[in-house]
Amino acid sequence: MSTTSLKNFEVWFVTGSQHLYGPKTLEQVKLNSTAIAGAFDASDKIPVRIVFKPVVKTPAEITEMCKDANNSPECIGLICWMHTFSPAKMWIAGLLSLQKPFVHLHTQFNRDLPWGEIDMDFMNLNQAAHGDREFGFIGSRLRIQRKVVVGHWEEANVQEKIGLWTRAAAGWNELRHLKVARWGDNMREVAVTEGDKVEAQIKLGVSVNGYGVGDLVKFVNEVSEGAIDGLVTEIESKYEVTDSLKKGGNKHESLRESARIELGMRAFLEKGGFKAFTTTFEDLQGLVQLPGFAVQRLMADGYGFGGEGDWKTAAMVRTMKVMAAGLTGGTSFMEDYTYHLHPSGAKVLGAHMLEVCESIAQEKPRVEIHQLGIGGKADPVRSKFTVKPGQALNASLIDMGNRFRLIVNEVEVVPLDAPMPKLPVASALWIPKPNLEIGAGAWILAGGAHHTSFTQAIPAEVLEDFAEMAGIEYLIINDSTKISEFKKELRWNDLYYHLSKGI
Ligand code: MN
Asked: What separation in Å is there between the alpha carbon of 336 and the centre of ligand 1?
């Protein structure tokens, strides 16, 4: 389940050239490329391993390299750079067969013009300024979506952008292989959490399957009392547990029941190789309480989750947790729950009935038990906490019928105006960018869900890179958003995605 490191993934550093320049120049190209790949591999801004690949000089070498990339489970993408000119018809067969994403690095080994020394040898060796344009043409001519990163390879900004792209590639790789388990179906009559699971598997790779709650109950009933003892002891040492739930407290059985459900869920997910799941409070036959605390703890361990059968959000939470590996700040299932519409500045209180991930907690979570007026079950255990102020974003993946659309809103998490002692769940308070009026207005025009994947770990750029790899529509709502322009973008995108099948 590890979401702490991406060092088991490789991105291949691929340099294009041709034989025209002769062996001496090609040897220098190789040395320079090796140095850049080595610097990227050592960079703390780039979370994956960067692997130097032999300079490709012919159509056959390029095609062979692309096939190798397709067949390598560790390789999640390529960095392509044309140190010299690499005639791009040589790249057609390779790029057409390539199933991994690539980022086009537009750099030059020498940062500066050697003013006093420059001669034709320098000019022939340092040709990215035109070689990368030739490569760019074939990418555009083939209609391949890709990121272009421009600047000297030693610049922090360049390495940062490459690093963000590799995070997107790791997320894309995760989604391609992800299995989501759904206990129960959607909340009845809800629209936005529905979608075409076959289309999702064709386009995104993710496999989504439903299971009866009875299948889960069987695992829950098989949990031993000894295992529950162990988990309850761990919980009591790790959290601030309310007195009634502690050993000897009159609600202690509820904590044991929560632990039993968690262990049952964990066993089910591990056995099936699932890294994301959904529950539905309407379908809980055989479970004593709605899984709240259990879900919170599983999410904190790296599982994706979506409430009420929301498999798209569950998949995005898991994907974004992988993208965020090793960064500060957590990622959680979230819901825009209720508003503060004060004239001094409107705010959103985000929460859920129970299931907010502990990875976004700013203080030690408190484990409590309260009545839940929905679902008709025994009172569920949950952990409660608040979220640290700062930059964050909400992402929502929806099914538009003919395409998937990813909507991202940058938000600013803010401190509470006053404590909320009676609120029985974990929550975050934020101001959407540019403000609630435009942020929520644009979100609703775009059809964004009430459910989101919320993160404080990754910037929107990662999700933009990801959407390009996945070939899905991307809409960003941030400080630059204007409603009239946003409406035009929606209309143009409708046309684009209708026509693009023939482009
Ligand atoms: Mn919900």
From this structure: 9
